[in-house]
Write a structure and sequence with these properties.
The chain has 597 residues and is an all-alpha fold. The protein has 2 domains: 63-120, no CATH class; 154-556, no CATH class. The chain has 21 helices and 2 strands. A two-stranded antiparallel sheet has the order 1-2. A hairpin with a 4-residue loop joins strand 1 and strand 2. Helix 11 (310-319) packs antiparallel against helix 13 (334-354), helix 11 (310-319) packs parallel to helix 14 (357-381) and helix 14 (357-381) runs antiparallel to helix 15. It is globular and about 120 Å long.
Length: 597
């Protein structure tokens, strides 16, 4: 018998049963939510059922959150629809702008990561030295170029995951965050000026005439400057790593000097005619960099090696001078001593091949200032040392004799101040400074990162070179930017020198290590008056991190120790799933990576 032959009552009952089953199937999830979230009547407090979630998070339920979930889904779908439509309409021209939502989403995911037993600091320790090797040995203008994207350089390939792992470590490890805060705020005034400069950068990016270009430059600086500074503040609390990284920078100078000599002999960049098509960047600035550069008037070739300009190469070599002097005076190995002192004339010859006066000036400042600080440190550590005491008292005469020698020797005078061949460069700097001051008075709040050339009247798309970093900083970030940026390095330099010569910390390894850092920062500030590029700035921000870490160790180390107790950089696992740092005690003989139970 078919359904049509059944009585009307049976058919109605079957239809009603089917409707109830259909409604129950559709309303099942809603009923489950009601059963989970409905309060238990009769109790003083409302108790709710909780599902198991990752610690330390707990699931909470409310009608408001449920409504938000219902509303967010359509809004997100609409956003994705609009996002995809405009991406297809504008790609590849505006790919960088469409990356911003992905960056924001990635930051939110990192922020929401649960706490972990360990932070991924081992990968950071591997990427950090690789970053500086790539910075010095690999020309930054050899990169992959994809339509609509910035240059994919080796520095970005290494620096981006390094900065990402730093953010992940800060998110998942409260003890790691604590160590970072302790280290970066060891010099509170330095930290205040650094934060002030970041705020000025953000403000000028918003008001920039080209906010996209300014935001891209700000993003690069966040990785190359501030991420490097933060990592350095924590990493170099292991005091023994400071000299190791100085040794790395000095060792990298050996192939650089060799390349400089070969390039100067051939009078062309060695790889200019052998760049594969995959790494060839079709940009006017790259073409100018690869073109042989000669000093006007005397036709003297100026070597660049792996750097973008001869000035950047000379700056790098000059900044290494105090570290070679440190190894020459303080190393216990005779081979290292001889090699370090032998590299000083090699550095000078290489700087002369660049024909950059700033390199000679940087070396002269380093030699004079390091001699003074070395004498004071040795005298503080060994009060009975007559040679150290005599050097300290006689140093004003030595200093004046060095300055007098520059003016007395015609050749040295030309190396420092130049002659007619360098007159055009000097006049160009004066003209640029006058132009910058007039533009600064018109807009004292700045024009935005990377906009100084356009503010001075250069046409968009032309190759812009500014020979004074004060000009670039003042026009990009305004008067406040100049105060904060120069204040960062002046504070670090003064504090490093202060702790170096302090009798309270006499004999401490950290105080001795601060001396070459103070000298390098002083040379850097002088060089920046005649050099407007930022090729070597990651090295300087690493030095700032070293200063903060060493001063933290001086303040919190064991009084009277000749060498510093090394605090571990990597967090370790404990029974309570919290991350702690283990300090190495000189009496227990624990290794620098000893794990705690």
């Amino acid at each position: 018998m078919t359904i049509a032959d059944r009585p009307i009552t049976d058919r109605a009952l079957n239809a009603g049963r089917a409707a109830v089953e259909f409604a129950g199937a559709r309303a099942g999830p809603l009923l489950d939510w009601v059963r989970e979230n409905a309060p238990i009547v009769g109790g003083a407090a409302v108790r709710r059922r909780r599902r198991v979630v990752l610690q330390p998070y707990a699931r909470t339920h409310s009608l408001r959150k449920t409504i938000l979930k219902i509303l967010v889904a359509p809004a997100l779908a609409l956003f994705c629809l609009v996002y995809g439509f405009f991406y297809a309409l504008t790609a590849p021209t505006l790919i960088v702008a469409f990356v911003v939502p992905l960056v924001v989403l990635t930051a939110m995911i990192i922020w929401a990561l649960p706490h972990q037993r360990t932070a991924p600091t081992l990968a950071i320790e591997f990427l950090f030295p690789a970053f500086f090797v790539a910075l010095i040995l690999w020309p930054n203008y050899l990169a992959l170029t994809l339509p609509g994207l910035p240059w994919i350089t080796l520095l970005r390939i290494i620096g981006l995951p390094m900065a990402g792992l730093l953010l992940v470590s800060l998110s998942v490890s409260p003890p790691f965050r604590k160590r970072v805060v302790e280290s970066v705020t060891s010099l509170k005034l330095l930290w205040i000026f650094l934060c002030g400069f970041v705020l000025v950068q953000i403000f000028t990016t918003i008001i920039s005439s080209a906010p996209g270009a300014s935001a891209q430059l700000l993003f690069n600086q966040s990785i190359y400057w501030f991420a490097v500074f933060t990592i350095s503040c924590v990493l170099f609390r292991q005091t023994q790593l400071v000299e190791k990284y100085w040794g790395l920078l000095c060792l990298l100078a050996v192939p650089i000097c060799a390349v400089t000599a070969l390039e100067s002999r051939g009078q062309h960049i060695l790889w200019a005619a052998h760049i594969p098509a995959l790494l060839r960047v079709p940009d006017p600035s790259v073409l100018i960099t690869l073109t042989p550069e000669y000093r006007p008037g005397i036709h003297l070739y100026r070597a660049k090696a792996t750097f973008s300009t001869s000035l950047a190469l000379a700056e790098y070599l000059a900044l290494l001078t105090p570290f070679f002097l440190h190894f020459g005076f303080w190393s216990k190995s005779k081979i290292v001593k001889v090699a370090a002192f032998a590299m000083i004339p090699v550095l000078f010859i290489s700087i002369r091949m660049t024909d950059a006066r700033l390199g000679v000036v940087g070396m002269l400042i380093s030699l004079l200032l390091y001699g003074l600080l070395w004498s004071i440190v040795r005298w503080r550590s060994h009060p009975r040392d007559l040679f150290a005491a005599a050097t300290v008292y006689a140093y004003p005469a030595v200093f004046m004799a060095g300055i007098g020698l520059v003016f007395a020797s015609h050749r040295l005078y030309l190396m420092v101040f130049g002659d007619g061949a360098q007159a055009s460069s000097t006049n160009a700097r004066k003209i640029q400074l006058d132009m910058a001051i007039s533009q600064l008075l018109k807009a004292p709040w700045g024009h935005g990162a990377g906009q100084s050339g356009l503010a001075m009247g250069y046409s968009e798309g032309s190759f812009i070179t500014i020979d004074n970093y004060f000009i670039g900083i003042s026009l990009d970030y305004g008067i406040l930017g100049v105060v904060f940026w120069y204040g960062i390095f002046i504070i670090a330099m003064v504090q490093a020198a202060r702790y170096t010569i302090s009798s309270k910390y006499a004999g401490r390894l950290e105080a001795r290590l601060l001396a070459p850092l103070a000298v390098a920062l002083a040379a850097f500030l002088v060089i920046k008056w005649v050099h407007g590029q930022d090729d070597n700035h990651p090295i300087l921000f690493m030095m700032l991190g070293m200063v903060s870490a060493l001063i933290y160790k001086l303040r919190h180390g064991t009084p009277g120790m000749k060498t510093a107790d090394t605090a571990e950089w990597r967090p370790v696992r404990t029974d309570s799933a919290r991350l702690v740092a283990v300090s190495r005690s000189p009496t227990h003989g624990l290794g620098p990576r000893q794990m705690a139970d």
